[in-house]
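Help! Submission page says 'invalid entity' but I think these are all valid:
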Amino acid sequence: MSEMRSHGPDPVPVVEGSAIGIIPNPMSGRDVRRIISQASVFPNAEKASMVLRILRTVGTLGVERVLLSTDTFGIAAGVQREIKRLSGARSSAHVRWPKVEFLTLERPTGTAADTTAFAETMAGRGSAAVVLLGGDGTMRAAVPGLGDTPMLALSTGTNNAFPVMIEATVAGIALGMIATGAAPEPTTHAKLLHVEVTRANGGVRHEAALVDVCVNTLGVLGSRALWKADSLRESYCTFAEPHSIGLTSIAGRLRPTGRDEPRGVAVRLDDPSVAAHTVLAPLAPGLLEWVGVLGSTELQLNVPHPVELDRGTIALDGEREVEFGPDDAVTVTLAQDGPRVIDVPTVLAASAHAWPTTTCVFA
Amino acid sequence: MTQTLSTLGSDAPDASALSEAQLLDVYRTMRSIRAFEDRVHEEFATGEIPGFVHLYAGEEASATGVCAHLDQDRDTIASTHRGHGHCIAKGVDIKPMMAEIFGKTTGSCRGKGGSMHIADLSKGMLGANGIVGGGPPLICGTALAAKIKGDGGVGVAFFGDGASNQGTTMEALNLASVWDLPAFFVAENNGYGEAAASTWSVSADNIADRAAGFGMPGVIVDGFDFFAVYEAAGEAIRRAREGGGPSLLEVKFTRYYGHFEGDQQTYRGKDEVRNARENLDCIKRFRQGVTESGRLTDAQLDEVDAQVAQLIEEAVTEAKAAPVPGPKDLLTDVYVKY
């Protein structure tokens, strides 16, 4: 005689129209810092696993639909294969998978522009939030496409300041609760550093950074990464945490500034072999370097700050992006007009009572 | 005229600190490779070139960016079947190279090797190699020699995405790691192993990811950008030279011609090559970068173009006029006495 086994409470009902977007960047975590230090290599198979954990979680919480970016590096393919396999497995019969739409781009470029395009598509197709798996560069690339859609930034490596290292399942809970209306969306906007480069011919280039702008003496974009202490001259930061890794760790040592404070930090730097003051800072994982410091100041909102160096490159969130010369005028302006960012601990702490329960267990 | 990059040496400065002469040297090398390959492409179509040729056009930034850090005396490279660019970047003379491709006695190997076997040990160029995955084990040998001699020499193996799947490559990566050799593995991922897309044929997401399995760092660079390759290769070679052990660099780009001359390339997208030539080309990008920043002028670069064009013209004319090996040459230069 077979025994009926209890399956527990009924599943959480699906909230019609609820949706989130997921963008795992297949190219993050592969730059030259793996040679010069011990920066981690984050395998794409693990990114696929993170996506699967988010899918399971938001599905369980009643999210109807997930939009997932596709790639040629096996992340989306791995997710598709696993969903197919697990959906038919008896052991996971109780798991409710959301409807997953695999998004493709008409003209993929294999560059950061693809991240922007995916973010824009997801925001335009009803995603309550977009979660990004990558590094600082991935997050920066998503910003122009997100519009007012909140982002959740998950780190896939050891070399990031903006995205956080938090278990994808827990991030999925926050996403699921926001997407189904069980928790409120974030209301405040992150800070951005706007860089304006006015060329001699009158042309103007605009760029923006989520974490920091670092003006340096290197004359070419090269391998993009920036880690040579003697090349650093000016560092502008939206926030500066003493426990951060990378260029903002310099300001984090001198003038700690929180992500939610209405101000930033500017630090003037010099070659440590000639500077009167030096600080030891972790410029990359495993790479503590002496950095020459001339001084630091508070960076006020909406006040353009002219760059003093007359030739070099500008690194945005750790990667060299703009070359400039003596005929170019460069300004950096801090503004509170960045994306709305989901802070997982804040969301969960504020709405723990709203987690799905069968009976009220809260006093 | 054929000497390239010799002024840079092993203590090359940061890419942004390259002097005017060094930048011109870099440009001359990349332009020489392009002009050489474009001309071989034309000449092959006439039927005068025996054997197969595999052209390197589009990939110039890789060989140039890596070899810019190498000395002729103590550093060695092992190449592939697509080896003309590596030869030129390592300083092999262009006229004997062209003669070799035409199978003439004035060639680098006296006409007995052809395109896939050009070698010049005096320049530290161990040879192009018809065996896919044949180069990496050779480099373990030269790197071991350099380590024993203690001369700071580095062995560099260029190999493709197809070769990244070969057992010889895996064994070499393993050996270099366990022996802690001053070796540098450059995976030139041009997207295709013959006609098979590397996104299908390479099981890892990136060739660079395989490095972790052998206990060495692996990084990826944009192969269309000379400065990106130059910086990353510089760090890897410095690491090897200073006793830090081997590393792997994956250079991603595409080739402008087929796998071999005559390849119909039905496996490629319609606009794939055109897009790369128009929007990504490493020589265009280099030229634009150095002229816009005022480090070089168009006039300087045009002069290099003219000099290279003349050199290639002379190389082809002289190669065609040179004699082919005769029956008396059958057994010469074939066997080596130890």
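Support: the input was valid. A stray whitespace character was the problem, and the output above is from the cleaned input. The helical segments of chain A are 33-36, 44-60, 75-87, 112-124, 136-146, 168-179, 248-254, 344-350.
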